């Protein structure tokens, strides 16, 4: 007799796509087996397993993958317009594969993809393919340099001036590439003396990477989980947060828990600054986090006796009594 297992679903989030198994997309379907480049599948696996996380890192990896594909791509001899063939046989299949089979794309990826499509459409139809490819590769390199690297330098220069020469206690949440750069420049280049409180939350525990980066640079750090933040808020003088997107109505999109940090800073009258590059500005309006969001793996939250093995944020088996000894190992069996 088989026991009926009722899926643990919350009706409020039933419209969101379910998280996919990390190994299902490694074997492509016969329909797209010959059209999906191995580099696309590899990057998709890195997206899905959270080996590559963060808006800048995901966007940079996507553009690097497209640059690799352009270097190995040659339009068919029967093609009348290489721009149409490039868009429909290379760019769109790759982007749809990452979005539908691996993980929903970030705002930064969507904006960069729109830029690349526009660059392809603006090419002259009579242009030779080698010249067109070189132009696209230069455009991709310029986009990464100007919209990501130079933007990070500008944010670091302006936001770093908000840190006092000595005595500040800066609070950060999770991991943000631009925030880490800001703090490193303030400590190593401007020689400012300050302390950092790194706030983290499960299941990703991205703050551990931030803690390691800042500690190696000699910056004094305190590590605390989100549920204990209120006990340290009295010592904080400034809060720096990273943003995944900036909506047209002024709302900031970021990792779960960011709103808790911002509200707590506001209630304690602590200045808060959000660092977000201009290429992450989105024309969309989002008033809450229920209609549009991304579901994660519930098992990672239910695991109470596990540790992250590397920066890939994947979890190993519990230590000691084994998986059956975990306090929430039978959560799916509970009525």
Topology:
Layout (H helix, E strand, L loop, with lengths): L37 H11 L6 H18 L9 H21 L4 H15 L7 H32 L5 E8 L3 H13 L3 E8 L6 H10 L4 E5 L3 H4 L5 E5 L2 E2 L5 E2 L4 H10 L4 E4 L22 H5 L33
Parallel strand pairs: 1-2, 1-4, 2-3, 4-7
Antiparallel strand pairs: 5-6
Helix pairs in contact: 1-2, 1-3, 2-4, 2-5, 3-4, 4-5, 5-6
Structural class: alpha/beta
| Overall outline | globular
User: Level of helix content?
Assistant: 40-55%
SSE pattern:
HHHHHEHEHEHEEEHEH
Helical region count?
10
The share of residues in extended strands comes to 5-15%
Beginning-to-end CA distance, first to last residue? 19 Å
Radius of gyration: 22 Å
Lateral strand order in the biggest sheet: 3-2-1-4-7
Mean pLDDT: 85
Low-confidence stretches: 1-5, 309-323
Largest sheet: 5 strands, parallel
Give the strand tally. Answer: 7
Please, could you describe this protein's structure?
It is a single chain. The relative contact order is 0.11. The protein has a five-stranded parallel sheet with strand order 3-2-1-4-7, sandwiched between helices. It is globular, with a radius of gyration of 22 Å. Helix content is about 40%, strand content about 10%. With about 325 residues, it is of the alpha/beta class.
